[in-house]
Write a structure and sequence with these properties.
about 70 residues, alpha+beta, 2 helices, 2 strands, about 60% helix
Length: about 70
């Protein structure tokens, strides 16, 4: 997990309103979030316990659908 170096924006009472992080940390957070989403989708697919197809069959199916749209 990324180490964050936030800067907080506060109101006149010291209540935190917003946070600013360096751009590289922001991009790392986006990458981490995308990876977590992939893991979540994988876990959901495994839990569904549905029959699977090989990658080759999936690509063939995708290509056939593309050709149908042309």
């Amino acid at each position: 997990m990324a180490t964050l170096h936030p800067t907080f924006i506060t109101d006149e009472n010291g209540e935190k309103l917003s946070v600013v992080i360096p751009i590289q940390e922001y991009y790392q957070l986006l990458e981490d979030l995308e990876e977590l989403e992939d893991i979540k989708l994988y876990d959901e697919a495994i839990a569904a316990n549905e029959p699977s197809v090989s990658m080759e069959e999936a690509f063939e199916w995708i290509e056939s659908k593309r050709k149908e749209k042309k």
